[in-house]
Design a protein that fits this description.
The protein is 14% helix and 32% strand. The protein is of the alpha/beta class. The termini are far apart.
């Protein structure tokens, strides 16, 4: 009897998860909110989050829909490790201060690819990109 109840419970959970197709899974901030967008069924969000761990960005690349959104797209980097890191942008935009706790945000208004790296650990160790559509 317990096995039968477990199977029914799991089946109900799969059915509920399958019916929530418009609610994307949390992949470290990619596609969490539906944002403004331009329609057309795109799963790209106007927000994204990046974890700044001990010598890595996770995910290292994110895609956001910001060029057509009213307020642009916002990406938030949150320090989750214990090491100090400093985000530096290749386009000259003001990056973060050297910090080990807290978060940093940037809003993007224009489509393009924006690359960054950690000034403390170097591009070869910690680098990433934001693709704005």
């Amino acid at each position: 009897m317990r096995f039968f109840v477990l199977v029914l419970t799991l089946a109900a959970g799969v059915t509920v998860a399958a019916s929530c197709g418009d609610f994307p899974l949390n992949n470290f901030g990619q596609g969490i909110s539906s944002g403004g967008g331009t329609g057309g069924g795109s799963d790209t969000s106007t927000t994204a989050s990046v974890n700044v761990g001990d010598n890595f960005f996770n995910p290292s690349s994110v895609t956001v829909a910001g060029s057509q959104a009213q307020n642009g797209a916002q990406v938030t980097w949150t320090w989750t490790g214990t090491n100090t890191h400093q985000i530096v942008w290749d386009d000259g935009y003001q990056g973060s201060a050297p910090i080990s706790v807290g978060s940093y945000q940037r809003t993007f208004q224009t489509a393009g690819t924006y690359t960054y790296y950690c000034a403390i650990h170097g591009r070869a160790v910690m680098s990433g990109s934001v693709q704005v559509q």
